[in-house]
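Subject line: Sequence and fold of a protein, written as structure tokens
Enclosed: The protein record, placed directly beneath this head.
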Amino acid sequence: MSGQEGELSPSQEWMLAQVRWGREPYTGLNFSFCPRRARSFDLEKSDDMLRKQVKFRKQQDLHNILAWQPPEVVRLYNANGTCGHNNEGSPMRYHIIRGLDLKGLLLSISRQELLRAKSQSCGLSLRECASSGARLGKKVEKIIAVFDFEGLSQRHLWKPGVEFAQEFLTALEANYPEILRNIIVVRASKLFPVAFNLIKPYITEEMCRKVVIPGDDWKQELPESTSPDQLPVEFGGTMTDTDGNSKCLTKINYGGEVPRSYYLRNQVRVQYKHQVTVGRGSSLQVENEILFPGCVLRWQFTLDEVDIGFRVFLKTKMGERQRAGEMMEVLPSQC
């Protein structure tokens, strides 16, 4: 059986009955059924998940989350938005990577405020599911997440930003299980596998199976599951704003670089294994041993009104020091 409500096996029905008849102090189908399903109806695991959810809801004040007003910088520069529905009535939630300036956001507000803003987005998506279900006369519980990875670059792999993404994905899986129908990735660049490997340990196998990566003709594939009038022209459909804008800017925030006027601090504390100072006009060569496939090199520069250039090379001879010209260039000169 699928584990969806209305398609339960006898054992799953029995597990759900434990909740409905007051076995737990916190009842309610929407709040307790999803943890059952997310933990494959393992009563002990889903009980633990449910109680952690209760704690999270209190910490984040989720009872009042929809009425909360996020900081202005979040409203203006958090690059996402809900626009249209698929053929099953699921809301389409867009995430625009090119316009996402996580560093700017985290220098302007606290991690807790940004996490709360993400929780509010989940709450708004669930409310849109309920609205869509009422309009169609059926239950709609899940959303479609569309990630546009055009413009993915090294700045998006900034260590504190990646750590925040990992923290949010952990919170999403623990507190909003079963909210995602599919995760559609479009315009994936060469850096996408690197970014995905950084977050993969923080998502479940079930969520991994929901990731869909269309080919180069994705603008033709998306309308197969979504009516063209429910897709912005920017994503292969026919929907526009009332003024004809093809990006549907009234529904999707495309973000952008956060102005420094919003910054509340100069830097986010980062713990790296190695930290060094490079003097003016000098150079430094740092060697790192790659122990297994999939390793990720990360670096951060703190500059005092100057520029710095760097390149990444692969040694061709082990056990001896080599000059840059003797090695294989992996990453061309960056400034």
Summary: The chain has a mean pLDDT of 82. The CA atoms of residues 222 and 246 lie 16 Å apart. The first helix runs from residue 10 to 20. The two ends are 55 Å apart (CA to CA).
